[in-house]
Amino acid sequence: MSEETIVLHAQESQAQFLVYSGNFCGYCTAAKRLLERSNLTYTEYNFDEHPGLRKLVVDATGHRTVPVILDISNEQPIFIGGYDQLQPYLRKRS
Fold first, then answer.
1. Residues 82, 68: contact at Cβ < 8 Å?
2. Which of 13, 39, 62, 70 has minimal Cβ neighbours within 10 Å of its Cβ?
3. Which structural domain range is residue 82 located in?
4. Shortest CA distance to 90 belongs to which of 26, 28, 16?
């Protein structure tokens, strides 16, 4: 069920990335700004606004902190990690 939620979010999105975030998260803000500066689109799901979603995403990815970022521009979502992993991922992707 956990991975199915992420796949469903990816299918519903017209963006290139999924960003799972939380309120008052500086790294979430930084990740979204980095994507915007790179002219990349994202769909955001805030854990504080979606009760129960955090557990599903943690179960699917093993990533316990926010942001949780996935590249959904291909057929299958690719788990990137958080903000620290996003920067090198985008460099390799270019």
1. yes
2. 39
3. 2-93
4. 16
